[in-house]
Design goal:
By secondary structure, this protein is an all-alpha fold. The chain has one domain. It has six helices and no strands. The longest helix has 44 residues. It is elongated, with a radius of gyration of 24 Å. The termini are close together. The C terminus is likely disordered.
Length: 204
């Protein structure tokens, strides 16, 4: 079992360290500007500065009404009119950007909720696994520890897609903090089970 413990401890540490560094990089160091931003800068700044989905919705409402007005006007002139050729024109372009930002915000909010819930589930499994390993059956304990750290690692993996909004940054902060906490809990677990000590009797 000692070889299994060491292998799993090394893998868990590797995953958590790599993703913690990734979260920190995306949150503080990754460039977010583009040479094309000057063409969309006002709207992009408004989206990035929004403090809630309600603020985005307040900006989206008048743009959506204008899109509906343009569509109604065009259909009045031509009932078979399509709008594919107008996607890159205003107000359609702004409407699409704001709609995407709102959808991304809602997805990030759901992900934050899931992240916190499943991380707590994983943490509970780690606690139960540690207790079982030390006081009851080591194999049952190892099983619970593996399940717990699988939850913790999976739900704190990096998020690569999504509009850059306040909620996106909040998700990154949550993942960064929970990854750091997970590393600390892992260090305690490794010490408790003696994964890297040679004095503990090898379990057969």
């Amino acid at each position: 079992m000692k070889a299994l413990q060491r292998t799993l401890a090394i893998l868990a540490t590797l995953f958590l360290v790599v993703q913690t560094v990734r979260h920190a990089y995306v949150l503080w160091l990754e460039p977010r500007d583009s040479v094309l931003d000057k063409y969309d800068r006002p709207l992009k700044d408004q989206i990035a500065a929004a403090g809630s989905v309600a603020e985005l919705l307040a900006r989206y409402d008048p743009v959506r009404r204008e899109v509906d007005r343009v569509k109604a006007s065009r259909r009045a002139a031509d009932p078979k009119a399509t709008f594919e050729d107008m996607r890159d024109a205003e107000p359609f372009k702004s409407e699409a950007s704001l709609r995407e930002a709102i959808q991304s915000w809602e997805e990030r909010a759901k992900e934050i909720h899931s992240l916190r819930f499943y991380w707590l589930v994983g943490f509970a499994l780690v606690v139960l696994g540690s207790a079982s390993y030390l006081r009851a059956n080591p194999w049952v304990g190892m099983t619970l520890l593996i399940a717990g750290y699988s939850e913790v690692i999976y739900w704190t993996t990096p998020t690569f897609l999504g509009a850059v909004t306040t909620e996106f940054d909040r998700l990154l902060v949550n993942k960064l903090v929970l990854s750091l906490v997970s590393l600390s809990v892992l260090a305690v677990t490794i010490r408790l089970v003696g994964a890297f000590t040679d004095t503990q009797q090898e379990l057969k």
